[in-house]
Amino acid sequence: MNNQHVLVCQQLVKRYQEGPAEVEVLKRVNLQLSAGERIAIVGSSGSGKTTLLNLLGGLDTPTEGEVLLDGQQISAMAENERGQLRNSKLGFVYQFHHLLPEFTALENVAMPLLMRPQVKIKTVKEQATELLTRVGLSHRLEHKPGELSGGERQRVAIARALVTKPCCVLLDEPTGNLDQHTAHTIHELMQELSQTTKTAFLVVTHDLALANQMDRVLKLVEGELIAA
Ligand SMILES: Nc1ncnc2c1ncn2[C@@H]1O[C@H](COP(=O)(O)OP(=O)(O)OP(=O)(O)O)[C@@H](O)[C@H]1O
Ligand SMILES: [Mg+2]
Predict the structure, then answer these.
(1) Which ligand is nearest to the CA of 206?
(2) Which domain, by its residues, includes 82?
(3) Among 7, 62, 103, 198, which is disulfide-ready with 107 (CB 3.0 to 4.6 Å)?
């Protein structure tokens, strides 16, 4: 493995048991994501994109194969160890945002930093505010998820994924609810971070305009990742 690869998976297989039948969603997936690289993953609905992202992010374990995050084998770790590695190295934007309903936008974004030992509340608030401003939500800091639109919630989730300055960010349909202009803002933010901080991005998307702005586009077809 090259040291520049922040995320690698080798011969990844995922099978689900459905009654007596076994469904092989991922057959043989190999991927190498370099520091600062931006990759789009496309594929039809049900092709296994979310399944793959969940394995890469250590939210689920593969049936076979391994996942290395910043050189560490996340797929073989115990749950608490995986959680720590995720919190320090990875940002994750879920297909369905998973914000905490009882907390404000600002608190939701600040949460991953607040979970760290010895943080300064003032600094955390400043960083969360800055990111929410970057995604166009400086006027929605005190709103709770229930008081935000779908696209606004999605942007809060993006800010939350970036607040820890992860080396790698996985995004599942991040612009699904966004208009073209707002989607472009998110794309610009990704481009800037990939250049300035060498953050790597892996984006699952149906948005071909967004996909084509990435460094590489890969397609999930019949359980394998191929160049699109
Ligand atoms: N926990 C599970 N148990 C059984 N089958 C599952 C499970 N999770 C997903 N699947 C199946 O795996 C396949 C891939 O699902 P996945 O959610 O990864 O697709 P996707 O590419 O993200 O689709 P979409 O574009 O609609 O979000 C689907 O056929 C789905 O039914
Ligand atoms: Mg999906």
Answers:
(1) 1
(2) 5-227
(3) 103
